[in-house]
Predict the structure.
Amino acid sequence: MKKEELRKRVLATQRHIYSVAENEKVADQFINWYGYQNAKTVMLTQSFNTEIGTSRIINHALENGKTVYLPTCDIFTKELIPTQVRAYPDDMVVNHYGILIPKATCPVCEHIEDIDLVLVPGMAFTEQGGRLGYGGGFYDRFLKKYGGHMISASLTREALIYEELPTDHFDQKVDWIITENRVFTI
Ligand SMILES: Nc1ncnc2c1ncn2[C@@H]1O[C@H](COP(=O)(O)OP(=O)(O)OP(=O)(O)O)[C@@H](O)[C@H]1O
Ligand SMILES: [Mg+2]
């Protein structure tokens, strides 16, 4: 199946299995994971709709003294720009697509290699770290360039781990997957 067709089906599944309690278990697993606890500088994501909620993770990271970046996008180079958030959600603004992003006044990360852990969004995964993203190629580009300097991890539900996913040569794998039941490395 083509990625585009699969994204529609996976999104329907994500909505179908949506459960605040189960999604919160995934966030708890992440917060309790040593990979996160040991990370001083983290690049997190801002969740939307029926994704695993990340607001509590962002607040936890700030309250625990971590340096927190959230992505903004350079629409010309199609690169992700880690942007520092020090107050949440005060440092955020709603963008054109209705998603919260860091305000334009937030400082941009000068040394991306200093990021210890990057949270990588995705719609579906495989046990081997394969990932179906939202179709922009932003994280594939980012991980290709910087993935060697940092640990990558994704949050998902067991029901969104597939036997197989369509993959292209440019697709990058994630190092860790966190679900409501387990935290595992590839
Ligand atoms: N390293 C790269 N350099 C240039 N273009 C790339 C690179 N990686 C991916 N792309 C482009 O990104 C586009 C989208 O890729 P894909 O469908 O895999 O996105 P995705 O993995 O769902 O998105 P994301 O990585 O943002 O979650 C592809 O058309 C591909 O050409
Ligand atoms: Mg991809």
The first helix runs from residue 3 to 16. The longest strand covers residues 67-74. The chain has a mean pLDDT of 97. The radius of gyration is 15 Å.
